[in-house]
């Protein structure tokens, strides 16, 4: 697919060709190394999430500060994670735990813009109902002075999402539900035999008939739920 420069060039080209006037953010999610985040910054990404949660808190603080120092002069926002969000993310599996407020304050002191504190959410599918720490969300956001980021937003009931937003979550990551909507559309297309009709095997038709529409519908529903519709 290419690297950071390929993605930036493609997105900027689409914005120009389609006359997009709504601000578009290019965000790196779970950047696990300083060099990776640095390369994305200089390629033109506008937002960086450094994930040093698997390291010691001291190393996490040091590396987060390095990235903040790279990003801030370029007006690029930085998100950092404290505590390990459970579930599976790119093949990494972990349990559920709550981040330490003390460690969150240490990361906040580096000058980040958003705090991804592990407070009960998991990546991927939930086994039972999520156990989100709403009181902790309010406390952590208040005592760090930062908006929170909820990773593992897929599968959380709507009422719990709304309560999380009211408790300080300003950015919610949803991936699993969008991917499932895509794969469901591909499956429907193949099961209906549309790929066997004339040029139905064309990838543009395979993706565009159901998969793209399913993804768009899911994303639109999430934007409405989050209160983000018609906002930039």
Automatic annotation (TrEMBL):
One protein family per Pfam: F_bP_aldolase
Recorded GO MF terms: aldehyde-lyase activity; zinc ion binding
InterPro entries per record: Aldolase_TIM, Class_II_FBP_aldolase, FBA_II
Cross-referenced PROSITE patterns: ALDOLASE_CLASS_II_2
GO BP, sorted A to Z: carbohydrate metabolic process
Protein name as it appears in the record: 6-phospho-5-dehydro-2-deoxy-D-gluconate aldolase
């Amino acid at each position: 697919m290419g690297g950071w420069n390929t993605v930036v060039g493609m997105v900027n080209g689409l914005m120009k060709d389609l006359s997009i006037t709504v601000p578009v953010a290019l965000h790196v999610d779970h950047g696990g190394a300083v060099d990776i985040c640095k390369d994305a910054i200089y390629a033109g990404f506008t937002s960086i999430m450094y994930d040093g949660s698997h390291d010691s808190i001291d190393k996490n603080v040091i590396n987060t500060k390095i990235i903040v120092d790279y990003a801030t002069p370029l007006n690029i926002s930085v998100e950092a994670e404290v505590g390990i969000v459970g579930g599976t993310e790119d093949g990494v599996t972990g349990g559920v735990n709550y981040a330490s407020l003390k460690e969150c304050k240490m990361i906040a002191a580096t000058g980040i813009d958003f705090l991804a504190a592990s407070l009960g959410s998991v990546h991927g599918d939930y086994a039972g109902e999520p156990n989100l720490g709403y009181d902790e969300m309010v406390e952590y956001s208040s005592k760090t002075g930062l908006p929170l980021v909820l990773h593992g937003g897929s599968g959380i009931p709507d009422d719990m999402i709304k309560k999380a937003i009211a408790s300080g979550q300003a950015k919610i990551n949803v991936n699993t539900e969008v991917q499932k909507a895509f794969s469901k559309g591909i499956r429907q297309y193949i099961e209906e035999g549309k790929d066997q009709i004339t040029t139905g095997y064309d990838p543009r038709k395979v993706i565009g008939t159901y998969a793209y529409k399913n993804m768009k519908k899911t994303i639109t529903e999430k934007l409405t739920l989050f209160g983000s519709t018609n906002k930039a």
